[in-house]
Amino acid sequence: MTFAKLSLLSIVMILLSACQSTTPTESTSPVSYTNLVEFNLHLNEALLVQDKEFFIDRISMTKALQIRQPSRSAKTFGSNWQQVFKNAFARMFFTEGSQLTWQYLGSEKIGPNRWQSLYRGISSEGQFSYVDFEIDTNYFTIVDVKNLFFEYSTLEFFAQVSDLPYCAKLTSDICDVKDSFNKLLLALGAKDSEAVKLIFKDLSAQQKSTVQIRDMLLRIAASMEAQLSVDFIQEIANELHNQGYYPTLFEGMYFTAKNYTLALKSLDSLDKKVRLDASVQMEKATIYAEMQQFEQAVITARAAIVADPNLSINYLVLLHIAFAGNDYDLAILTMNVIEEKFMIDIDEELLTEFEYSDAFMKSNQYRNWSATQKQAG
Amino acid sequence: MNNNKFYFKAIIALITLCTTLSANAFQLSAIDIAQYKQGPSPVWVIPPAIKSSAKEEHPNATSYLLIDRQVNALQPQQQRYFRYRFRINNSSALSDNSDIKINFTPDYQQLEIHSVNIIRAGKIVKELDIEQVKIINDEASQQNNIYNGSVVALILLKDTRVGDIIDYSYTVIGNNPVFKNNFYFNNSLGWSITVKHLNLRVLLPNELKVDFRVVGSNIKPVEVVNNGQRIITLEQFNSTEIPMEDNAPSWFDPSPFIEISSYADWQQVAQWATDIFQVKQPLSVELSEYIESLKTLDKQQAINNAIVFVQDNVRYLGLELGVNSHMPHSPNEVFQNRYGDCKDKTLLLVTILKELNVTAYPALVSSQKNSAVANYLPTHSMFNHVIVKLVHNEQSYWVDPTITYQGSNLAHLYQHNYGKALIVDNQTVALSNANPTSSHFGKVEILEQHKAADYFSPVEKLITTSFYGSEAEYMRYRLASEGQTAIARHYLNYYAKKNPEITSLGDFSVSDDRKKNKVTIKERYLIPEYWQHVKNTAEFSLTANYAAGYLNFPTTVKRQQPFWLHWPTEINHQIELQLPEHINFGELESKTIDNKYISFKSTLSYDIRVLTLTTQYKNKQNFIAAKDTKLFIDTLNDLDNYLAYYKSITNVGSDKGIDAMQRLIENLNLHISAGE
């Protein structure tokens, strides 16, 4: 089957949240770095200030893809594929309206001159995501990126996809599920939710249990959230449960459905280095609070705060937990930190935004605190 | 903590002898049959001339004036004559030397005491009254669960004074029949203090072929053959003082010695041993059934199970009466009684393994001499322990059936390096190398994670310690004997020396993987005084010094003798301090020390908010040669500078919300203290 280059490139763009192609820009000269921390601090800064040029300049994934499939990359993606790829990829991190606040969390060595640098992205609503940048420390370039909610890294995924047209000649794992994968890929590209449901129904148990299909289903659930019904996403989630997987991607869905046990399980499925991160711990604390296990919620919230004492949103979550558990002393202490450390004014209007704040606002502790604040103010 | 040394001292204590029956029953029987009498010196003894001078100096607490030792092996019942003459020079020597203890084994020996005199100003003022002699148990052996039937004739001297000369002599008649007609004699020619006069005389039948030599001295023994007797004599005056320096290896013996052996070679010794290790009875029904149950398993698992069974289910108890001092009890008996000493357990295990078609042999070793057994003439006397050599998948393993709490998989079983062994087999012609090719290391990995929410609140400390090989076995033993609670308390108090206000959070948890021979301990603490504040700075220290517990400075620096280090051990200690914020530490130092004794690396690294100190230590040799003492001391001094890191962080007081944060963390810490 001849694979349409254009359609594949479209899918690449979609999967990378690309909206339109851009004119390739000239890269700036790279800055030399003495160590990986220095590079990551610079990269973190670039992500925070939306320095797309720096980011594009540091990407050498295309080189890595070319090394893996030297003769096929141009054929599969077109002659200008490298720059288009870079731009499309950069849009993962620089799309307006879906901006996350990124924070570098640390690196681990995975090979000679190869490191994985972990980043956490948080939205203004408190939703979080984690990515691993694979860094080549010979040149301080980004050779791969993996969203930790998926099975494959970006490079691995594209390598799989670009193997598809050549299944007649080569042996690749993707070829075992080629047809189903192809269909899902086209349906995803077209954002055709009905086609996705039909294809999913026709998948055999064995096909569903492959890592390629599993990864594709996760990408579909992430990219087509608006098009797919909650019931169908639940169906995908159930299928993965049956295989013993509890992807973190579905944590929000479980939480909303008040299935707190599964919500916790989905957070525990993360890699250990991420599981202990402040955002994950605080999410767990929130779940414990909903389960009315307030002591466990506070203990877990403490772990989150110790893991990153400068993440302001976590103190707001702790305040929520304090209200839910009627621990007014803890609430007062937390409010003091929010005001003094983060210079966020806590007034009645803000407090009423919290679900369980009514009783607290009628308490003596709050009255005394308010009076003290007024005197100090 | 030098677990290695303690561990092997325990091994040595276990293996010096074998265990007992009911102590009381044995005490009565041994003492009842103990035979001793008083009588004149045997006629064959030729006493040496004693020279003394009023101008003699006595610089030590005790002056050894004469050691006279004569052996008559002309008859099957050997006679061993001893005479000691020494002067008490000060009051400390009074308490050390006012009783006489003579060991003998009534099962096959009699004691004849000839004289016990106290000489004052040249005159005998006190002589032996036979009623003074008390026969007591050999408590030293019994403390080690070994009952060999030996007793002690105790003579308490009365009215001894500084300046007195004590002169006593006795003969022990009889020899252990297990040695048959084999003869071995060994006597030191040097001690830590001078012996003024040493007289040795050995009478042997001429037809008994012997080899004899002096090692470490130019003194020449005299051999006279006359009337069918071979008489070997040696007389030495004013022996050279040979002080023992601290922590010399157990196998190191600087003292010269003379030895006489009737064994022509190690092959003969092996043949003697093979004879006494014969299994003469058919296997009992119970033992056969047990072996059949093992045959249903795959061979690897059967071997593992057999080793665990003999180690953990047959308790160490030595009944070494008579020939059983060296001849093992039958496997049937050991299996039924579920007790035995090293040779009993070895023979049982070898028997089981052979029935499983595994090549296995008893192997005689020395826990003290180690490879140095090869420095002696062939003899049965140099071995104090027996282990098992087995061959599986073309690899040799040296398994000690007396060690408990080992791993349950042969591949990860710690194998002690005994250096040399004598394989008990008719094909043996020489000593074998008994160096394990694998699993002879002990390893400890420590990961400490320090988590700081700010520069003022207590810091949470999580410690994960993983023990492997011999270290795992030692920790397993400690957990079984001391208990988890006691060890947790011990650990807490150890940390409290540096941080007295430390509190423990939650359980001190232990997990044990006996297949991989790995024990893991997890601990969690809060340390209020982690940060030391000086003005506006917060000082901290990271100390990754677990390896320091294995390294001691020699007391004797000007050394002539080697210095024992420890058995092969690897220590990796990593500390990660998670800071409240990113700090630029600049360039961080690493250090590598690599010489013929020690490999050491200390690395400091930093990655966004986490400062890591890692020390990696491994010894390449077990001991330091005397000539390299300076190198070793310089190495320790150098290494000491890189086991810890000290730093202070400035402007900590200028952060916003410090007090509010402290109060919040204090409240949150109450929850983890209460919730665990």
CATH architecture descriptor text of the largest domain in chain B: Sandwich
Taking the alpha carbons of the first and last residues of chain B, their distance comes to: 29 Å
Q: How many domains make up the 3D coordinates of chain A?
A: 3
Poorly predicted runs of chain B: 1-28
Q: Biggest interface: chains and residue counts?
A: A-B, 30 and 29 residues
Q: Please report the distance between the alpha carbons of the first and last residues of chain A.
A: 73 Å
Rg for CA atoms of chain B: 31 Å
What does this molecule look like?
The complex is a heterodimer of chains A (377) and B (676). In chain A, 57% of the residues lie in helices and 10% in strands. Chain A has 377 residues and is an alpha+beta fold. Chain A has a four-stranded antiparallel sheet. In chain A, strand 2 (114-122) and strand 3 form a beta hairpin. The longest helix of chain A is centred in the C-terminal third of the chain and has 15 residues, at 328-342. Residues 1-10 and 16-29 of chain A have low confidence and may be disordered. Chain B has three domains: 3-264, Immunoglobulin-like, CATH 2.60.40; 270-434, C8orf32 fold, CATH 3.10.620; 442-675, Jelly Rolls, CATH 2.60.120. In chain B, strand 5 and strand 6 (123-126) form a beta hairpin. In chain B, helix 10 packs across helix 11. Classes of the chains: A alpha+beta (377), B alpha+beta (676). The A-B interface holds A 36-37, 40-41, 104-107, 295-296, 298-299, 301-302, 305-307, 309-310, 329-330, 333-334, 336-337, 339-343 and B 451-454, 460, 578, 580-582, 606-610, 655-657, 659-661, 663-665, 667-669, 671-672, 675.
